[in-house]
Amino acid sequence: MASWKMQTTNPQSSWAKFCGLTWQERWLLLQAFVFLSLVAAGLHFMNFQRLHSLLARFANAPLDVCGDAALQQASAISRLVQAAASRIPWKITCLVRSTALWYMLRRKGIGSEIRIGVNQLEGEFHAHAWVEIDGIVINDRDDIHSQYAAFEHITMPGGSKMI
Fold first, then answer.
1. Domain boundaries, position 149
2. Is 1 contained in some domain?
3. Which residue, 9, 43, 58, 113, has fewest beta-carbon neighbours within 10 Å?
4. What are the tens digits of pLDDT across the range 63-115?
């Protein structure tokens, strides 16, 4: 999949890059805009567990895509989600971005997990969310584990676990 840089400020350059995408990538980018907006609104009106459970019901594709092909596809989708998030006029948090990516991957049959980690710097509590496939970080730096202590399991409604 083509790469779309996130720091573009020139609208003509953004348009040229958009035109350089395949129709599948354009469709994924449009979906990213929609899902980022829906997840942001959903988290405004309900808690994360409830939204996660609701999204899991709608993305009931069999999770059968795995291996290097899944990692490459997930990485490409992650770049498109990040590109969309950087162009939305309101603040998109790491939880919104990671939840939208997790949902898009799940719809493609790629099993992934949302990881939530915490740290405390200079007396301030910080939390961060990212997506992993088989322990490989998809939408963040590879060394994110060294900066945030990730929760091992978060129990979701209905007894399912989010790692």
1. 11-162
2. no
3. 9
4. 777 788 899 999 999 999 999 999 999 999 999 999 999 999 999 999 999 99
* DSSP state letter for 100: H
Q: What single letter denotes the amino acid at residue 130?
A: W
Helix %, strand %, coil % of the chain (to 5):
50, 20, 30
Q: What is the dihedral of CA 136, 141, 142, 147, to 10 degrees?
A: -110
- Residue 140 falls inside a structural domain: yes
Q: What is the dihedral of CA 64, 70, 76, 80, to 10 degrees?
A: 20
Residue 87 lies inside a defined structural domain of this protein: yes
Q: Are strands 136-137 and 154-155 parallel, antiparallel or unpaired?
A: unpaired
Phi then psi dihedrals of residue 83, to 5 deg: -60, -45
Domain-located, residue 3: no
